[in-house]
């Protein structure tokens, strides 16, 4: 494997190596990042005084670093001011798989497990960037048209960052996979696709006259897959507003 190939993949270890069905495991940045970028919700697992916790929260990626936010009073954030080892996961359910025997019932999915040391963002410039990125990551250019956050709002919000040290993706995308002899059985089998689709926008009833939906939201149109909108937000540039 060339040095270029190595640098474009996360290192494997006993911690992140896919052990069961290792053929479904991926470690390259492109696959891992694509799955991460298709979601805005993650689950962060950590241990405080011997007690395990798992917290769902919004997150975003910048290169090989992940950010998430929460209240300054939260247990997770207080713990991670010390630099805690954490495991962050994201999963997409793509289909339900009904086979000809119970054992072969399954699901198609994409999942990522990322490991690193989380730290509280205290640098003023990094925190200021995070305040903007928390919105613009998902809705590019939107913060330029918003009311500026107050000092109290910024004080009440904390951000956690984690450089991805190790990560792995696991993907199943094969639909029904029965034993050869079971295909001769008179049993119905199918794959049921699962998608998160955007609905029709519901404008706030208290909008001022003349205020219309800005171009920054063009990517979030009715009928579009949420994951496509989230992924495209990394690359689409909109005029400010």
TrEMBL record:
InterPro entries recorded: Pyridox_Oxase-rel (IPR024747), Split_barrel_FMN-bd (IPR012349)
Q: Name one Pfam family in it.
A: Pyridox_ox_2
What name has this protein been given in UniProt? Nitroimidazol reductase NimA-like FMN-containing flavoprotein (Pyridoxamine 5'-phosphate oxidase superfamily)
Protein source organism: Bradyrhizobium daqingense
* Lineage, broadest ranks: Bacteria, Pseudomonadati, Pseudomonadota, Alphaproteobacteria, Hyphomicrobiales
């Amino acid at each position: 494997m060339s040095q270029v190939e190595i640098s474009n993949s996360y290192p494997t270890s006993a911690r992140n190596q896919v052990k069961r069905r290792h053929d479904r495991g991926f470690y390259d940045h492109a696959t891992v990042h694509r799955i991460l970028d298709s979601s805005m919700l993650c689950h962060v697992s950590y241990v405080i005084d011997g007690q395990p916790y798992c917290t769902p929260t919004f997150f975003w990626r910048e290169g090989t670093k992940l950010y998430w936010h929460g209240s300054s009073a939260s247990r997770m954030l207080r713990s991670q001011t010390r630099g805690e080892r954490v495991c962050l996961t994201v999963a997409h359910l793509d289909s339900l798989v009904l086979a000809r025997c119970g054992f072969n019932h399954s699901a198609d999915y994409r999942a990522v497990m990322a490991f690193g040391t989380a730290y509280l963002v205290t640098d003023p410039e990094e925190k200021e960037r995070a305040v903007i990125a928390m919105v613009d990551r998902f809705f590019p250019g939107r913060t330029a048209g918003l009311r500026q956050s107050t000092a109290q709002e910024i004080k009440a919000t904390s951000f956690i960052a984690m450089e991805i040290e190790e990560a792995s993706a696991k993907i199943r995308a094969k639909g029904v996979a029965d034993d050869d002899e079971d295909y001769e059985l008179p049993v119905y089998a199918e794959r049921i696709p699962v998608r998160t689709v955007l609905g029709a926008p519901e404008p706030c009833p208290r909008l001022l006259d003349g205020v219309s939906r800005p171009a920054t939201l063009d990517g979030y149109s009715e009928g579009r897959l949420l994951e496509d909108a989230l992924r495209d937000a990394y690359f689409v540039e909109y005029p400010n507003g």
